[in-house]
């Protein structure tokens, strides 16, 4: 009967009926996958998981959408896909490029490089930062920008060298973000003793949850289970006393610290 209706109906009606017949199940399946993704994320990372798991199970629609808007995207500081941002910022990039040609000082190249890096154009950003450093080798924003490009390109040796240069000039630069990147690079390069020593100094000054967790795992790898346990417990205490929004943002480190304590 359905086949007869599709064959004898006008073409636009046939297309609409087919889309209705096959499109809705596909949409339902896509939403199920999205709901499952949000549920797993909630169980693994959400500090207030009991309420949100209950919501996702009882009101599965639109519970997943509510959770994504209220918890998932704010925690990730969602800014939209890069290809979409590039389409809207093309004129801005052109203006910044012209400024580097007309003014040509190091600052203009850094601003241009930052815009390129934010849009994922790492090779062009690298060239812009290199031009800035050629004009001023000790310019901190250019060194840090080049280090972030190296992070995106997964070149830990460059990250280590660039962040080390920044820390030698100003150890407080970016309130510990540079120090954290330097410690990550040491760990990625297998320099575990140096990374452990660096993170021990870092957490005494900046209580980044990631840094505390990394220090705990480095102690664990070195066989110092007591020190590893202390750092994991300290991380959980820090997140328990901080505002809920910050705790949600660092939920994955909280979850990993709990897993480390179970070990």
Summarize the SSE layout with pairings.
Elements: H1 2-8, H2 11-45, H3 49-58, H4 60-76, H5 82-102, H6 106-118, H7 122-135, H8 140-152, H9 156-169, H10 177-188, H11 192-205, H12 209-221, H13 225-241, H14 244-249, H15 251-262
Helix pairs in contact: 1-2, 2-3, 2-4, 3-4, 5-6, 6-7, 6-8, 7-8, 8-9, 9-10, 10-11, 11-12, 12-13, 12-15, 13-15
Task: Give the structure's gist in a few sentences.
The protein has 263 residues and is mainly alpha-helical. It has 15 helices and no strands.
If you had to describe this structure to a student in words, what would you say it looks like?
The protein is 83% helix and 0% strand. It contains 15 helices and no strands. It has helices at 2-8, 11-45, 49-58, 60-76, 82-102, 106-118, 122-135, 140-152, 156-169, 177-188, 192-205, 209-221, 225-241, 244-249, 251-262. The chain starts with a helix and ends with a helix. Residues 1-13 have low confidence and may be disordered.
- Number of helical stretches of at least 4 residues: 15
Q: Looking at CATH, which topology of the largest domain would you report?
A: Serine Threonine Protein Phosphatase 5, Tetratricopeptide repeat
- Estimate what percentage of residues fall within beta strands: under 5%
Cα-based radius of gyration, to the nearest Å:
25 Å
Mean pLDDT: 87
Count of folded domains: 3
Number of strands: 0
Q: Which class of secondary structure composition applies to the elements?
A: mainly alpha
Shape: flat
Largest sheet: none
- Report helical residue fraction: over 70%
Low-confidence regions:
1-13
| Corresponding CATH superfamily of the largest domain | Tetratricopeptide repeat domain
CATH architecture of the largest domain: Alpha Horseshoe
CATH level 1 name of the largest domain = Mainly Alpha
Order of helices and strands: HHHHHHHHHHHHHHH
Q: Please report the distance between the alpha carbons of the first and last residues.
A: 62 Å
């Amino acid at each position: 009967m359905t086949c007869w209706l599709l064959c004898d109906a006008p073409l636009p009606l046939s297309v609409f009926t087919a889309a209705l017949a096959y499109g809705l199940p596909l949409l339902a399946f896509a939403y199920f996958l999205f709901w499952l993704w949000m549920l797993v994320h909630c169980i693994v990372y959400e500090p207030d998981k009991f309420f949100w798991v209950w919501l996702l199970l009882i009101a599965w629609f639109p519970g997943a959408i509510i959770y994504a808007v209220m918890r998932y995207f704010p925690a990730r500081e969602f800014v939209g896909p890069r290809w979409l941002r590039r389409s809207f910022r093309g004129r801005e990039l052109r203006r910044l490029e012209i400024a580097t040609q007309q003014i040509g000082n190091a600052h203009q190249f850094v601003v241009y490089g930052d815009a390129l890096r934010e849009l994922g154009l790492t090779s062009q950003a690298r060239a812009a930062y290199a031009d800035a450093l050629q004009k001023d080798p000790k310019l901190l924003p250019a060194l840090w920008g080049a280090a972030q490009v190296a992070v995106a390109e997964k070149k830990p040796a460059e990250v280590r060298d660039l962040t080390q240069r920044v820390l030698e000039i100003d150890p407080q630069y970016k309130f510990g973000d540079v120090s954290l990147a330097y410690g990550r690079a040491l760990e990625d390069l297998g320099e575990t003793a140096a990374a452990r020593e660096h993170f021990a100094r870092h957490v005494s000054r900046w209580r980044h949850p990631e840094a505390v967790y990394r220090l705990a795992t480095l102690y664990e790898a070195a066989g110092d289970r007591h020190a590893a346990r202390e750092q994991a417990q300290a991380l959980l205490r820090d997140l328990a006393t901080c505002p809920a929004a910050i705790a949600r943002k660092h939920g994955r480190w909280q979850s990993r610290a709990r897993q480390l304590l179970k070990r």
